[in-house]
Amino acid sequence: MGRREELSRFLKTARGRIDPEEAGLPRRERRRAKGLSRDEVALLSGMSITWYTWFEQGRDVQLSAPTLERLSTALRLPPREREFLFSLAQHRPPPLTDPTSESIPPSVQHMMDSLSIPALVLTQQWTVIAWNRLVSVLFRDYADLPSEERNLFRILLLNDMYRRDPEEYREMVQRITARLKWDYSQAARMDSFDRFIEDMMSRSDTFRECWETSEIAAHLEGIHTASVPGVGDITFRHTSYSIEQEPGLRLVLFAPMDARSTERLHLLDD
After folding, report:
1. For 211-257, what is each residue's pLDDT tens digit?
2. Which residues lie closer than 8 Å to 34 by C-beta, 6 or more apart?
3. pTM, 2 dp
């Protein structure tokens, strides 16, 4: 089955399961089939009946992202089906949306808690919303911080502990700003992100300079050393991964760099 044929089947199924009266449409005495008709879908999504009919029939009709969003709303598509519609229609994922809440699926927290390495979850704007025990032991206990102070970018940029070596600090700011630029380009709520950027510029000339360069990084990796009293230095390589259930969130994992770091980390995991 081709992509257009699957799109046609999917749209017919989606409109067929919606009760017209629940969608706010007047009751019709006679209906040939259950669900919404094509003209009702067109009405609810702000499209012409001809354009929608051609689209559902699998013709080579290109719809804009805003039109697909309206169609997703009209068909009451859940997040996964919305992504499916965009993938079939535009050969790419839909624009990211804000996470429905600052929480993660229980399965992700369970996975992090079962790991023997530090792990945390960030929003697009770098707010830490979940972490495991080793993050609290090695870096900081985010539970002790008010929710508005759990932004990792703000911590890295403004905390004096990261400014001890000016050269290393500038290199770090360049790296994380290049990634923040990518996150900014993908943001669902630009107004909130704009306020965050303005606040960081007012607090750090280094950030302002780095933001005004053209460096962009779609993926961020790095090396970080944690000094643990009674144990010694533990060096990690960190990298991040998108969470499939919530594409706007990412999981950051910290893996020990060498045998000595692995040994010392195991002492904390006992």
Report:
1. 988 688 878 888 989 999 999 999 999 999 988 777 778 999 999 99
2. 16, 17
3. 0.71
Per-residue pLDDT tens over the stretch 147-157: 889 999 999 99
N-to-C CA span, the chain: 53
| Paired residues of 225 in beta bridges | 235
In sequence order, what E strands does the chain have?
A: 119-122, 128-131, 222-228, 232-243, 246-256
Q: Which amino acid is at 186?
A: Q
d(CA 207, CA 229): 31
Helix, strand, coil share (%) of the chain residues, nearest 5? 50, 15, 35
Which domains can be identified in the chain, with CATH numbers? 3-90 (1.10.260.40), 106-168+218-269 (3.30.450.20)
Does residue 12 contact residue 56 with C-beta atoms inside 8 Å? yes
* CA 190 to each of CA 123, 151, 157, 195, 213: distance values in angstroms, whole numbers, following the listed order: 14, 17, 21, 9, 20
Contact 43, 26 (CB under 8 A): no
